[in-house]
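Thread: quick sanity check before group meeting

JM: Hey all, I'm pulling together slides for Thursday and realized we never actually wrote out the predicted structure for the chain we discussed last week. Dropping the sequence here so it's in one place. If anyone has concerns about the input, flag it before I start.
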Amino acid sequence: MKFKRKHFLILLCVIVLVIWGRKLLKWDLNRHYMPSYGGSRKEDKVTPTPSSISVLSGNNSLCDCKAQTDLHQFLPSDQLDAIIKSRAKEYKEHQLRIKTNTDILIARANSPLQYPIRGFNVAPLQKSLIPGLALYTQKREVYKVSLSVEKGVLSVDDDVHHQVNGQGESNLNISSLRLKQVNNLLSRVTYTSTIYHIRTSDLVYFRFEDNEAVFPVSIRRPAVPVLYSGGNDINSKVTITTKTFLRYNKLKVLINSIRKVYPKIKIIIADDSPKPENLFGDNIEQYIMPPAQGWFAGRNLAVSQVTTKFFLWVDDDFEFMDETRIESFVEIMEANPELDVVGGAVSVNFFLARTDAVRRVGFDPFLKKVGHTEFFIDGLGKLLVVSCKDLSIGHQIHESHEEYDVNRNEGESEIEKKYAHHFYKNYLKCIKY
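JM (edit): ok, ran it. Output follows.
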């Protein structure tokens, strides 16, 4: 069944969003509104380009490769343009996901002072323009404003009339006989942190006569993006991963069902069976573990070997059906770059995930037998997850297996240990499965 655009729209309508500590998706991520700096109250749409983003840009003029190794020389010359284009697309999605400086809010001048009330992010030791600074007041003989910080210095770019005192210092004073000139200078005030710290903050004190405003500066070292190159076919984008223990008859049914639909896609198997059986076939990687290491240890191993942008997690007793289409998962992910996990129908153990996002959360190897909800507990506030009812997979008929059941089912003492583990590790007061 071909996944058409109309089906995609219908599917999105029935998606149940499960938000792990983030906001709902914003389709217009790069727009916000700021009043103009002059006397007019007209609102202008602006798209800032903060230095904290440009530092990682592939075309950044500040980046000098003369004293370093230029990575372009290691790329195939006949594929260079295509690789650069694909890389730019991936980086754009990365920027959308981290949303640096896209949530800036400007406080309108209910007092005479206008300033950013949140979302002003800077990179350590790098000069950044403070957005939205302005003064709105009635006529004065002279207009004087001051700004001060603790962990950085302030400057005004191109102060040709020398109306600024304290350039490059923690206290900055601006004065002029004209309000328009003060606002012109305020529009060019920059902040530079003087202490290298990858995750800290500062406060800016902004004063005019008896009015004072205080707003935060978030100092963050931009993370290096993790981008995945490769082709546009499903085999280049997705790896299927699973964990097995003793159930080779179930696993072989799963593999055969996958190969009917996806004959070339890579399958990674983490196997902690006491007496492993060798599995043969093209694009099958079987990783043998010490016996009975457990559910999440196997997941960590399998995901650690993925080299594609996405991986599809399945249990070893699942079975692909005609309607099990990985392409549908991928289309949803790529249309919504903020998503980390898209779950399908059968249980929480059937989902497509971004490889780099899940690796940042990981799977707790303490959990050896049952591991379903626990992964999503660890992902709270870190992963944005959706569940799609129309994306489904089959489940093979359960068959009793004494040795498997003994190692799979939790006893009362094991459940108690797990609860105690959650209480301490996850700082939980209570839990309901």
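AS: nice. Confidence is low (pLDDT under 50) at residues 5-62. The chain has twelve helices and 24 strands.
JM: adding both to the slides.
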